[in-house]
Amino acid sequence: MNWNKRPGLELMAIFVMIVVVSILGVLQYLWTAEISRTEQGRLKNSLDTSVKDFDQEFSYDFQKLCESFEMNPEENMPALEASAANRYSTWIRINSHPGLVAGVYLLKTVSPGNTQFAALNEGDKRFHNSPWPSQLNSLRPFLLQPEKRQDSAVDDRVAVYFPWAFYDETPALVRPVFQIVSDDKTHRPAAQPIGFLVVLLNPDIFEQQYFADLVDRHFGNSGQSNFVVSIRTSKAPFHTVYLSDATFPMTSSSPDAQVNLFDLVNDEARRRGHAPVQPADRDRQWQLVVQHAAGSLGDVVASWRRRNLAISFGLLAVLAGAIALIFSVTRREKALARMQMEFVAGVSHELCTPLAVINSAAENLVDGVVDSNEQMQEYGGIIRGQGRRLERLVDEVLLFTAGRFGLSGYDLMPLEVDPIISQSMAASESILRESGFTVEKKIDSRLPLILADPAAVITCIENLVSNAIKYSNSSRSITIRAVAGSSGPAQAKPEVRIGVEDKGIGIPAADLPHIFEPFYRGQSVRDNHIRGVGLGLYLVRRMMEDMGGRVSVTSESGKGTAVVLHFPAEIHGEHIEPEDS
Ligand code: ADP
Fold first, then answer.
1. CA 484, CA 577: separation in Å to the nearest integer?
2. Which residue from 342, 437, 461, 471 has its CB within 8 A of the most atoms of ligand 1, so it is best to mutate?
3. How far is the CA of 227 from the centre of ligand 1 (A)?
4. CB-ligand 1 contact for 521 (6 Å cutoff)
5. Cβ of 561 less than 6 Å from ligand 1
């Protein structure tokens, strides 16, 4: 496709690509939002499943524990004791965490206001009178307070479903034990409370074994291992019973998942026709609380989305950058191709013009048109001038090629400024004379020596003088100025500036940044068919930089141009007096 001939098409292609990249960006944004929602839902579902499984297993185990010690109204205390001892032995045999129960106790009501405390001895499977164990101290006031106790007879159905009270601080399960009596008034059987059965649980086994096992089973796989699991009381200030990661501050009041553990225990009890369990203090009932270690599920998905978007937008930016680069490279290639075409045309023109003049002068000589000595000298001068012009052109092309392939080599030496300027003027003398230009030299006295290659200095100045002549208008004078100055950071490096100043056509501001590029020629000079190939200033810049200096330009359209060569000064040479920089 020829973009050259169809700039509209190029703009259209850029526009389409910008639109496509923008649409891709928007789609990516929306898609990641959609995927984040789905992902959050998936993670939440999977978490809820783990929480449910945990809850079910806990409720099954706890219900089984209560069920094992649930005693129906017995006939008398010895039968009741034997039953409790049997149930404990059975439970120990079948349970995977037998250590969960630390002891079984009976608080027997011997007569109103008179109680006796007994502990089950695992060895002989009998209850023996014993002092209160210290772990049950917190329960003692409750059990010994008559107003809180269940003292009056109840219907035997009420007795069967009488709930367990769970004291989380101890922790212990407490339930009244009943004896069947005959109601004095109705003469029907009734259940008379004759004491309390206390099942003391072992908090260490709960925390270090039982909960740890449950958490490992339900949250231990790779998908859930980033969650921190806690068993804590339901109301603030929270009391933590178990925490899977002791370093994690489980403070959130809106965790990723939470469930009251005894809700399902009671549902299960009801379903299986057993006595429910009530936390002694509702505010201290146990809750399973799960939170992602990174904050919350929402935070995790949001940060995943941010990362995803950053990568996607990064890729889109790379794509957009690549497209922009392709267009810019294509444009540069086009510009380079155009400049090279102009270069070839310029070189051909530059070769043809002097050759045509030389040929016509030679023909005149051959034809004998020239007879006098003066005419002979005049024709000789013309041929010499055109020959030099050709020579310089070929030099420029050769220098350009040498510069391009890194073949340039300079012989840097300390040089006096005035003599080297004089030599440059001598080299440009004929062209100056032919075009009727006068040169004014303004060279400061006591300049330091410069460190440069003499031939390169002469070529540079010659080039600048040639441009000053080429791009002149009515004024026919050029000024060569040489001053001392300084450059570099903190103006610490002494330098000598040699400037070639003219009052010619000047350089338009738009051309100024480009005039040192190879093959670059100002638009107006091309329009006015001023000869040239656009290599002169490029070569001057290359030579100056190769010698450790630089070149600068100031110009104003229609007023004139000053091109200044900055040479590093020879430090051990003459005394240096820098002017303003
Ligand atoms: P050329 O003179 O062969 O075009 P140069 O590299 O020497 O190539 O110059 C590049 C361009 O800079 C010129 O085409 C012209 O537009 C501008 N230029 C250089 N010197 C002068 C000057 N003294 N006055 C006005 N324009 C200049």
1. 7
2. 471
3. 73
4. yes
5. yes
Q: CA 540 to CA 127: how far, in whole Å? A: 114
DSSP 496-552: EEEEEEE-SS---TTTGGGTTSTT---HHHHHTT----S-HHHHHHHHHHHTT-EEE
Whether this model's pTM surpasses 0.70: no
Q: Which residues contact 222 (CB under 8 A, 6 or more apart)?
A: none
- The residue nearest atom 8 of ligand 1, judged by CA position, is 534
Q: In angstroms, what CA-CA distances link 413 with 449, 454, 486, 564?
A: 9, 8, 19, 20
pLDDT score of 577 more than 50: no
How does pLDDT run across 391-442, given as a tens digit for each residue?
Answer: 878 887 887 777 654 545 778 899 999 999 999 998 888 788 888 999 999 9
DSSP 569: B
Q: Is the CB of 532 under 6 A from ligand 1?
A: yes
Phi and psi dihedrals of 368, rounded to 5?
75, 15
User: Which helix (H) or strand (E) covers residue 249, if one does?
Assistant: none
Q: How far is the CA of 522 from the centre of ligand 1 (A)?
A: 7
- Determine the distance from the C-alpha atom of residue 535 to the mean position of all C-alpha atoms in its chain, rounded to a whole number: 46
Write phi, then psi, for 9 (nearest 5 degrees). -65, -40
Contacts of 304 (CB under 8 A, 6+ apart): 36, 39
Query: What's residue 150's pLDDT?
Result: 63
For residue 469 and ligand 1, the question of a CB distance below 6 A is answered with no
CA distances from 24 to 12, 315, 316, 322, 384 (A): 18, 11, 8, 16, 68
Q: What's the token pair of residue 478? A: 């050029």
Identify whether 193 is preceded by a cis peptide bond (ω within 30 of 0). Answer: no
In the prediction, which pLDDT does 568 show? 93
Q: How many angstroms is it from 518 CA to the middle of ligand 1?
A: 11
**Could you give the CA distance from residue 156 to residue 183 in angstroms, rounded to a whole number?**
11
Residue 239, φ and ψ in degrees, nearest 5: -110, 120
Average the pLDDT over 323-351 and give the result.
Answer: 82
- Mean pLDDT of all residues in 249-270: 85
Give me the amino acid identity at 118.
Answer: A
Kind and range of the H or E element at 559?
Answer: none
Q: How many residues does the chain have?
A: 581
500 lines ligand 1 (CB under 6 A): no
Please enumerate, as own/partner, the contacts of 166-169 that have beta carbons within 8 Å and a separation of 24 or more. 166/262, 166/277, 166/278, 166/279, 166/280, 166/285, 167/138, 167/139, 167/280, 168/233, 168/239, 168/241, 168/279, 168/280, 168/281, 168/284, 168/285, 168/286, 169/138, 169/284
pLDDT at 182 over 80: no
525 Cβ inside 6 Å of ligand 1: yes
Distance (Å) from CA 402 to ligand 1 centroid? 21
Is-cis flag, bond preceding 171, omega within 30?
Answer: yes
Phi-psi region of 227 (alpha: psi -120 to 50; beta: other; left: phi over 0): beta
Cα(396)–Cα(415) distance, integer angstroms:
24
